[in-house]
Amino acid sequence: MQNSQSSSKRFLDIIVELQSLIREQGIQYGDKLPSERHLAEKLQVSRTAVREALRSMELLGLIETKRGEGTFLSDFKKHQLVEVLSMFIMQQSRSVQDVVETRMIHERAAITAVTEKLELRMLPVWKGMQSKLAEEDACFLREDLVRETIIATENRLSLKIWFLLNQYSGVSYDIAITEKEEIAIVSELLDEMMAGHTKQAIACYEQWIDRVEGERREIE
Fold first, then answer.
1. How many domains does the chain have?
2. Range of the domain at 151
């Protein structure tokens, strides 16, 4: 677990270093960025790490990859939401914790929306999740639970914002739910959602997310 969290923190460092490199080299909107190999050597990290960092920068709208041509700096000012979020993440000293708290607001809102609407509570996806949790060899990621809950609300803006926040909050969502205690909590969360018990569902979520976030806080 510590390795996963350390990797997340290093990942954020690479994003910041790439931003600094862009400023230092005077790269303007529309200019081509150095190759992955060059960036890896310059930043003294693996090409895989650089590739993942570039992918997230592309998701934020900071860069654009053109097949067969390379990667270019985007005019992200065309996307005001992305501009505000990306600059906040890059520049604020307390940004990670603020991002975490904002991400959780979207997650709670999605759970509440599902529990309060019968048609959403009756979606087959919830029972499908419980079936996966019961299978020994099933790979059910933490991210799957939250993502599908937000998708169920059909709030595309919330999903987009959550996805961006998730990339930078440092939470270990890309981990399969395999431990018995966590399986029990998530299973109960799904039960309460399907039953329409908003207060109880949120309580289960709080218990689960405190466990997940605790893993991140341990190494900070």
1. 2
2. 93-217
CB neighbour list of residue 50: distance below 8 Å, 6 or more residues apart: 14, 18, 36, 39, 40, 43
Asked if 68 and 174 sit in the same domain, the reply is: no
In DSSP notation, 15-47 reads HHHHHHHHHHTTPPTTPBPPPHHHHHHHHTS-H
What CATH code is carried by the domain that includes residue 25?
A: 1.10.10.10
**The model scores a pTM over 0.70:** no
What's the pLDDT at 88? 59
pLDDT in tens, 83-140: 556 555 555 545 677 888 888 999 999 999 999 999 999 999 999 999 988 887 767 8
Is residue 86 in a domain?
no
Does some domain include residue 87? Answer: no
Q: 147: Cβ–Cβ under 8 A, 6 or more apart, which residues?
A: 159, 162, 163
206 and 123 assigned to the same domain: yes
Task: Indicate whether 88 belongs to any domain.
Answer: no
